[in-house]
Amino acid sequence: MKANIRSACPWLSLLMLLSLVLAACGGGSTSSQGQTLHVLIGYNSTYPAQQRQWMQQIASEFQKATGSTIAWDTYSSSSEEQTKLQTSIVSGSGPDIFSFGTTFVPTAQATKGFTVLTDQDWQAVGGKDRFFQQQLTMAGSSPNQLISVPFVMRPFAMVYNKELFQKAGITTAPTTWTEFVQDAQKMTNPSAGVYGAEIDPSDSFDPWKIWWMFAGQLGGSFISQDLKTAQMNTPEAVQAVRF
């Protein structure tokens, strides 16, 4: 069985999901003791030591609960993530559980290599009610085609530097996009290396998500409603990128 984990409920959620996969591999019986589950997750280059500690804790608790072990594997880039997914689907072998971000779930589901979770499966992990409903909207292509269980949640936030606001004479945070642009222009001082707004273009994940958000607010979409035509060069998409 291949299952997909995605975007933090407590670590207990992961243990419950691992047990769910183990039960499926063992046909729902108790004979699954001694098996090894192979789990693929993204490598955390910012907190590698903490991630190793977390993996050891999960593996230890899982072994105590089931008598089985976990073999961890990691990917360090979106391209490596894609390659390992495609290789697993083509070969018919690979990780029992993949850890993906919500935006990668449609790609995973399009391979048709992931198990659609049943009502019984959801009960085994505590029921759908224990998760935020917004998380479940990205757990599959439709409510009856869910292939993933929410495992962590990383909300996006827009933050601002109060010191820079004060230096520019700005007393409150902007509430419209027009104010956002005006305030950013007031704070920008290229000679001092200070800019009113920033985003890391080298980040392989975040920039396009913000681009997508702006395009959506302008009434655009990256792909046509029939899912057959890319619309990356529409006026709305271009305006979003320029903004």
What does this protein structure show overall?
With 243 residues, the chain is α/β, with parallel strands linked by helices. The protein contains ten helices and five strands, in the order E-H-E-H-E-H-E-H-H-H-E-H-H-H-H. The chain has helices at residues 11-25, 48-66, 78-91, 105-110, 119-124, 133-136, 162-167, 177-187, 206-217, 235-242, and strands at 3-6, 36-42, 69-75, 97-99, 148-150. Helix 1 packs across helix 2 and helix 9 packs across helix 10. Mean pLDDT is 82; it is low at 1-11 and 26-31.
Q: H/E series, N to C?
A: EHEHEHEHHHEHHHH
The oligomeric state is single chain
Report the β-strand fraction as a percent range: 5-15%
Kindly report the average pLDDT value: 82
Spatial arrangement of strands, main beta sheet: 3-2-4-1-5
What is the share of helical residues? 40-55%
Number of strands: 5
Tally of individual helices: 10
Shape: globular
Roughly how many Å is the radius of gyration?
Answer: 22 Å
* Largest sheet data: 5 strands, parallel
Query: How far from one another are the termini?
Result: 44 Å
Coarse structural class: alpha/beta
What's the arrangement of secondary structure elements?
Blueprint: E1 3-6, H1 11-25, E2 36-42, H2 48-66, E3 69-75, H3 78-91, E4 97-99, H4 105-110, H5 119-124, H6 133-136, E5 148-150, H7 162-167, H8 177-187, H9 206-217, H10 235-242
Parallel strand pairs: 1-4, 1-5, 2-3, 2-4
Helix pairs in contact: 1-2, 9-10
